Every structure is written in C-alpha cells, then in structure tokens.
Predict the 3D structure of the following.
Amino acid sequence: MKEAKEWVKEQKVSIEEILFDDLYERARERGVERVRQAVDEGIVREVAMVSEADCIMEIFSYPIARMIVASVESDYLVRRYALAEAKKAYESMKNEEGSFIDYLAREMGVEVSGNEIYFTDYLKYAPTWDINWKLVNREMRKGYVLLSKSEVARLIQEAIRKKIYNELAFAFAPPEVKKVFKDEILGIKNKVIFKEEKRKVGEVKEEGFPPCIKNLIAAVKAGINVPHVGRFTLVTFLNAVGMDIEEILKIFASSPDFNAEKTRYQIEHITGRISGTVYATPKCDTIRTWGLCYPDEYCRNIRHPLFYYRRRARK
Ligand code: SF4
C-alpha cells in the first residue's frame, strides 16, 4: 500500500543495508520464506507480529521477496507469487473493518461503497463465467452490484493479484540480490522447474479425445461462437488430461475473437490457479442436455468424457 511505501522511503534505508546489514537478517529470512510458501503452499502465511520490530521486518521482507522473485526470472513463479500474496491479503481482509476494505479497494482502483461495487469494476475482477458470479444473477442498484463482505474481499484479491503480477512481470532485481540469495534462488528455481515439469508429465494423446471435445476444439479454432458451457467443458477436460495453461491458451488463441488476458484469467479460474477450486469436467448426461454430445461407436456405455479418454488413450 502507498502508506507502507512512503513509510519505507522515510526510513531512508539503502538496498545495501537491506541486503547486507545484520539488522535486516530477519527480514531477509522472512523474504525467502514468503517466496518458498508461495511455491510450496500457494499462499503466503501470516506471521505473528507482537512488537514494532516484527512489523518492520515484515514490511521489509516484502520488497526482499519481490527482488528474489524477479531474480528467478520465471513467469510461472511471478504468477504463483502474485496469487499467493493476493490470497494472503484476502485472508487478512476477513478480519478487517468495512471502512478499511473500502480504503484498500480505492487504493487498488476498485470503486466500492460499503458492500456495493460499480458494475464496470465488478466485470473487470469477478469470475463471471462462474454461474454464481454472472451479472444476471446479481442484485444491482443504480449501477452498483450488491455483494457480501467476503465477495468484495475476493474481488479486491483479484485486483491485488493483477497489480503484483503487472509490477513483477517485467521487473529486474539489482545484481547483488542474486549474489546474496544465490543458494535460495537456486533452490527456488529447481522447485519451480520441478513443478512445471510435473505438470507436463503424461503426454496428452489428442487422438484419444472423445468426439464432444474434438468438436469443441474444432469450433473454437474455427471461430464459431462456442457457448460458455462448451468452453467450460473444454477447459476442465484439457486440464484434467494434463495440459498446462499455455497449451490450453494455444487452443483458444486460434479463435478470431481471442483475448489473451481474459481467456487466461478464465482458464486460471476454472483450473483452480486463482479460485482454489479445480472445476470437474461435466458428465455425459449434462453435456447431452447442452446439445454438445456427438457420440461415436466408442461412446457406448460411456458416462464421462474422461472415461472415454482413459479407455482410448491406453490403446
Ligand atoms: S457420449 Fe459422452 S464422451 Fe461421447 S460424445 Fe457424448 S458427451 Fe462426449
């Protein structure tokens, strides 16, 4: 927040002091811990702060963590870290007064008034492909959408995630950071590579995809308007068979109305990267009611597209 930034400026502490002075050792340790928690747990955990010194170390640990993230030079880590910090903020917001949440929202550029949010901001930050978040399912008053306190916090979480990601995506850390945190950076890098590799394990055999999924892919690529439920089915299926976000994005990228940021956000939500919920692929019965089922001879006795894939991909 602006106040924290200004406070840090007023302390007139140099980067050299933060990196080398014994006084800031705890802040450096906590900075490393923030990044490790982001990688390992997907959330930066709160720490108990009993004294002013604890608070100061916590504040300084944040720029240190950001410098470490920038030094690893991994877009995957930047995304994961931005989300982990945003989740931490969400957890903190649960215990805050409404007035503070309003203040925080304003700072993030989100127009909130009590538990009401202006609809343009709502559309910017809400996962609106989720039926519960669709604007038609929300009560609106004079352009403002009514929400619960935790829903407001959830939208601010997304604003924070975007802000941190945008700030870090092209950030460079001073070269000394790589020297001071040489071992830690190497350890984090290895973990990140391992996590990315793990997601890629298990080659995806597209020839084993059921006809409903093949049809959806063909429609998306041809720029045919695929209904929301079709896009949802496709993303949940591709995620379940082990495709990573970049690969799924590539499929949608051939669509003429492709919007990279919006599509990525939707994919990250459906696959649980942002929402924390990995949405399941719908059953055949459900897909049938949506008019998206085009069975072939292998669909006999199949009740779920993933069963089809498992059976066919083994061959
Ligand atoms: S029966 Fe199931 S797997 Fe086969 S096309 Fe229909 S929805 Fe897809």
